[in-house]
Amino acid sequence: MASVVIAYFSGFGHTARFAEAVRDGAASVADTEVHLVAVDTVTEEQWLLLDSADAVIFGSPTYLGDVAAKFKGFMEQSSRRWKSQTWADKLAAGFVNSGAKSGDKLHALQTLSLFAAQHSMLWVSLGLLPGWNASTASEFDLNRLGVWLGAAAQSNSDEGPEAAHPADLATCEHLGRRVAQQATHRAAVPVPVRG
Ligand SMILES: Cc1cc2nc3c(=O)[nH]c(=O)nc-3n(C[C@H](O)[C@H](O)[C@H](O)COP(=O)(O)O)c2cc1C
C-alpha cells in the first residue's frame, strides 16, 4: 500500500477543486491511500501523515506570481523536517492555478519544485505532451496550458470553483494517477540505502 498526501492551499476554493481532482486520480490507483491536507490548518496528526507518505503532491494558487503566502508559511513551518531531511527520497509533484491563462504560474510551480528539492525529494513531472497547440486542437485537450513541470489550471476571475475547466480537472487527475502509480511501483520494491 502506498500513501499519497496532497498538501494544498486555497483562498477561495478554486485550487481546492483541483486538489480534489488530484485526489481522485491518485485514488483510482489500486493499493493507494490518499489524504488531502489543507496546509493553512495543518494539524500535528497531518504532519505525521506527511512524514510517513510515499509521495506528496503540493498545490497552490498563484498570488502575485508565486505561491500564496499561506503556502509559503507551510514551507517555512516544514523547516524542522528540512533540517533533519525527514522527507528525503519521497516522491513529490505539484499543481498550480491562476486567474490568467499564464498568470506567471510557472514561477509558482518552480517554487514548489525547489521546495521539494530542498527536502531532497524526487520530483515527478506531468508526463503529458502539450494540448491546444495545433489548428485541430481544442481547449478541452489534456494539458491545454502546455506545462511539463506539473499540472497547471486556470480559473476565470468571475466564476466560482464549480466552473473549473474540465481539461484542467482531467490534467490534475492525470497527475494524481501518475504519482500514485509511481509510488505503488516504488512501494513494491526495496528502497536503496540513501547515499
Ligand atoms: C492576492 C492575489 C494575487 C493574485 N495574483 C495572481 C497572479 O499573479 N496571476 C494570476 O493569473 N492570478 C492571480 N490571482 C488570481 C488567483 O490566482 C485566482 O483567482 C485563483 O483561482 C485563486 O485560487 P483560490 O480560490 O484557490 O485561492 C491572484 C489572486 C489574489 C487574491
Automatic annotation (TrEMBL):
Annotated Pfam families: FMN_red
Sequence ranges assigned to domain Flavodoxin-like in this UniProt record: 4-153
Protein known as: Flavodoxin family protein
